[in-house]
Specification:
Layout lengths: L14 H12 L6 E5 L5 H5 L1 H6 L3 E6 L16 H11 L5 E4 L2 H7 L4 E6 L5 H12 L2 E8 L10 H10 L4 E3 L2 E5 L1
Parallel strand pairs: 1-2, 1-4, 2-3, 4-5
Antiparallel strand pairs: 5-7, 6-7
């Protein structure tokens, strides 16, 4: 986990990941609908908060909010959900929150999203299932985090599931994206 960058909550998004995420969000039309699955404390969403506000993007956040801390780091000082809500409020964001697993949220989510960003369970089967479920709800672009060309045991499923699901994938840092 990366320490907080100036103005960003703790999390795993590197500066190059932030730059790519900002590029992807900038490409969305005004008043688009954007879903992020696996928000943790809101680091990635915080990095694009100004764009979300300026473009009046309808934001949907999906997470189980069950983490108490991360291995090798101090426990969270509050609940994951309270910290996420605090970080969103500090940045002027008021997302629609689905506090549930990704697959359940995909079923409950009504309508379509212009952009879905996946960063939850990183196992092959989970990523493959999430792509299939959210693809039905996505009109423009899907993306996600932790696409590593050299897979590690933590995220060994992301690359394989993404590569099997899309013919053409854009990669920058550990952020992947594919047009629908």
């Amino acid at each position: 986990m990366r320490p907080p960058a100036p103005g960003l909550p703790a999390g795993w998004f590197s500066p190059i990941d932030v730059a790519e995420y900002r590029y992807l969000v900038r490409e969305l039309p005004d008043k688009a609908t954007m879903v992020e699955v696996g928000v943790f404390l809101g680091r990635s969403l915080s990095s694009v908060a100004d764009l979300i506000r300026a473009k009046q993007i309808r934001l949907v956040a999906v997470d189980t909010f069950t983490k108490l801390g991360m291995r090798g780091y101090r426990p969270l000082k509050d609940t994951q959900r309270n910290l996420f809500d605090k970080h969103m409020h500090e940045r002027g964001l008021d997302p629609i929150v689905y506090a549930m697993p990704s697959m359940e949220a995909a079923i409950r989510f009504q309508g379509k999203a212009d952009f879905v960003f996946l960063d939850a369970d990183h196992t092959y089967r989970a990523v493959l299932a999430e792509i299939a479920a959210w693809r039905l709800k996505t009109t423009r672009m899907m993306g996600g985090h932790d696409y590593r060309r050299k897979a590690t045991s933590l995220v060994n499923g992301v690359k394989q599931a993404v590569d099997e699901s899309f013919r053409s994938v854009h990669i920058r840092g550990e952020v992947w994206s594919a047009e629908m």
